[in-house]
Amino acid sequence: MPKVNVYTDISQEEREARKDYIDRHSPFIHCESEAKAGELFNVTVQVGAEYQHPDDMEHYISTVALYNKETKIAESTFFAGSQGGQGKKGNTRVTFGVVLDKDAKLVAHSYCTQHGLWESLPVEVKVEQAVEA
Ligand SMILES: [Fe+2]
């Protein structure tokens, strides 16, 4: 099992290089806080909030995965060049359409080809059950 780097609040970090390193590798989940059971629900995951990660042939963000509690429910693969390539910087982003059947706790992982696996803060989603007719 690879080491998992869990996001920490960069406002607590003093060194600019450390803030950049943590932020540009960390996935951030963007979604509504409530969903309806059985309906498609959009969850966007973006790698990096304030900083961008480089996109080189040997160094890029290759996967973004979404978990609900311990279960992986979605994953997207990227290749070198997805953010413009040739060392350009970017924020790898994907929107997953998922169906939740009960209250969820979402966590995202991103994988950098040189700096390993990174985990987001968890996001709770309240799921409203459909009313029986
Ligand atoms: Fe990296």
Mind explaining what this structure looks like?
The chain is mainly β and 133 residues long. It has a single domain (4-125), classed as SOR catalytic domain (Immunoglobulin-like), CATH 2.60.40. It contains 1 helix and 12 strands. The strands form 3 sheets. Strands 1, 3, 6, 7, 10, 11 and 12 form a 7-stranded mixed β-sheet that branches. A 3-stranded antiparallel β-sheet has the order 2-4-9. Strand 10 and strand 11 form a beta hairpin. The radius of gyration is 16 Å and the shape is elongated. Bound molecules: fe (ii) ion. Residues 25, 53, 59, 112, 114-115 line the site of fe (ii) ion. Fe (ii) ion binds next to loops.
Q: Give the helix/strand class.
A: mainly beta
Main sheet makeup: 7 strands, mixed
Helix content: under 10%
Name the CATH homologous superfamily.
SOR catalytic domain
Strand content: over 45%
Give a short overview.
The protein is mostly beta strands and 133 residues long.
